[in-house]
Design brief:
Layout: H1 2-40, H2 69-83, E1 86-91, E2 96-101, H3 106-109, E3 114-120, E4 125-133, E5 139-146, E6 149-152, E7 163-168, E8 171-178, H4 186-191, E9 198-204, E10 207-212, H5 215-234
Antiparallel strand pairs: 1-2, 2-3, 3-4, 4-8, 5-6, 5-9, 7-8, 9-10
Helix pairs in contact: 2-5
Length: 237
Amino acid sequence: MADSLSKKVLTISGGIAILGGIAIFCFVLSAIGGVATKENQTVEQPASENQQTPIANSSKMPTTISVDPVALEVDKNRLVELKNKFNYDYDEFEKIGWYENKTQVVANTFDKKMLRVRVNNKGYAYLEDQYYGDNWIFHTRVVVKIGDTIYTSDDIPSYDSANHTNNSGGSVWERISYSGGRDNGIIEAIAKSGDASVLVRFAGDQGVSDFTLAARDQQAIKDAYELSNLIKKIGNQ
């Protein structure tokens, strides 16, 4: 009886020992696996303050535009040629100079219906008209027809500071300046009119006045347009 009990105790003790060994073995395997997993993990390191971030799209970087010296010289020579067609009046206080075509000075135009373009030393240009006659029409806009295309300026009312009137000796003058692009493309249209005739209408509250733009005024506008663009392109050299 005692021997039988002893054998059972030994059997149980042996089983416990075996179970303990298995548990220890599993624990060791788990620990080894954990270490291996940590070794295989990729750890993101914070970027160094001196580390440069790669540029995503280098094609958007500004590029240096090379200047063709031959083309530049051609432009400079053309600018000199154009300036010879204009009188230049510079205001030392305002630091602004204005170009006036020599064919459109007051002595040549005071008794004419006409269009002119004024250009300053920055390349800025604007359209100006002049109505001359015996009777007022109090015009507020100019309409130009080239071929089948009609161009109409903005309406400049009589109370606008850009709308001027004068009279002397039974004659009247009405002048409007279409600055700030209020010519609505008339300058460019005349500059690109080629040999086509330019029909002009001064439209006012008391009537209209139509005429064909004189060839010299048409050429003067072409020259002024080119002068403006060249100054913008290469400066007032």
